[in-house]
């Protein structure tokens, strides 16, 4: 089990609360758990200026989600991923086969993207969904995959395949409601996570060995650290 440690960037700290052997075989796999904590007093998220469909969008008062910190300092929407060298691959635990072909939703809900930061594997299908009673368009530009810009009518959806892994998160937007913003990470392995509202994250069944983990947050940018799995 790892001792608690901090990785500071001036904006946030990572507290790795434990590394535990998985049930399958302690010699081959481990689970990374941790929590991101904001370093300092977090600013209050600003209310967004809404220029379209106010009767719908103002009902839920969306705020700037660039930096979301809960009452105990937990930092949401941090991406944690194993950094893989170009041309290399990671051994994937067989438990992940059960979700390899899942559909992953990116919803236009309450005039914001839900989730604000999403994670999808190349074997999975992205569902662009619109739960609002007004139309949205969902657009994203990638480095490896073709861009998309899809009009999603009210309470409808569209499916998209992203067949190539991306080195960096892709920004997602909506031309109809220009304040809407989100990010999408695309990988060909399952070894990534996005921190929850309280800053916690978990990546199960990590291959044994020392791995370089990349940490990305919308405001702070990107950092990395090596962590050893048993």
Biggest β-sheet: count, sense, barrel?
5 strands, mixed
CATH homologous superfamily placement: Cupredoxins -  blue copper proteins
Alpha-beta classification: mainly beta
The CATH architecture designation is Sandwich
Helix and strand pattern: EEEHEEEEEEEEEEEEEE
Instruction: Figure out the total of helices.
Output: 1
Instruction: Report the C-alpha radius of gyration, rounded.
Output: 18 Å
What proportion strand? 35-45%
Question: Would you tell me the overall average pLDDT?
Answer: 87
Could you tell me how far the N terminus lies from the C terminus, measured between alpha carbons in angstroms? 8 Å
Low-confidence sequence ranges: 1-10, 16-25
Silhouette: globular
The beta-strand count equals 17
The CATH class, by name, is: Mainly Beta
The percent of residues in helical segments reads under 10%
What does this structure look like?
By secondary structure, this protein is an all-beta fold. The chain has one helix spanning 54-57; strands spanning 6-8, 12-21, 29-38, 79-82, 103-109, 112-114, 117-121, 125-130, 136-140, 148-152, 157-161, 170-173, 181-187, 192-194, 200-207, 209-217, 221-229. It has a single domain (6-229), classed as Immunoglobulin-like. The longest helix has 4 residues, at 54-57. It is globular, with a radius of gyration of 18 Å. It starts with 5 loop residues before the first strand and ends with a strand.
């Amino acid at each position: 089990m790892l001792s608690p440690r901090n990785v500071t960037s001036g904006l946030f700290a990572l507290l790795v609360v434990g590394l535990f052997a998985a049930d399958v075989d302690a010699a081959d796999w481990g689970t990374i758990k941790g929590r991101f904590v904001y370093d300092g007093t977090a600013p209050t998220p600003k209310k967004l200026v809404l220029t379209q469909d106010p009767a719908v969008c103002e009902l839920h008062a969306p705020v700037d989600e660039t930096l979301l910190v809960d009452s105990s300092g937990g930092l949401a929407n941090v991406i944690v991923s194993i950094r893989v060298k170009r041309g290399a691959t990671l051994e994937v635990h067989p438990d992940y086969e059960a979700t390899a072909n899942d559909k992953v939703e990116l919803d236009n809900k309450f005039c914001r993207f839900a989730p604000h930061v999403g994670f999808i594997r190349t074997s999975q299908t992205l569902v662009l969904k619109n739960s609002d009673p007004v139309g949205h368009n969902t657009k994203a530009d990638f480095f490896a995959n073709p861009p998309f810009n899809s009009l999603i009518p009210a309470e409808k959806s569209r499916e998209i395949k992203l067949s190539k892994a991306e080195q960096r998160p892709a920004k997602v937007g909506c031309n109809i409601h220009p304040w809407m913003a989100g990010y999408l990470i695309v990988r060909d392995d399952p070894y990534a996570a996005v921190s929850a509202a309280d800053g916690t994250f978990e990546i199960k069944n990590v291959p044994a060995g020392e791995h370089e983990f990349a940490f990305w947050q919308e405001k702070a940018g990107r950092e990395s650290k090596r962590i050893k799995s048993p």
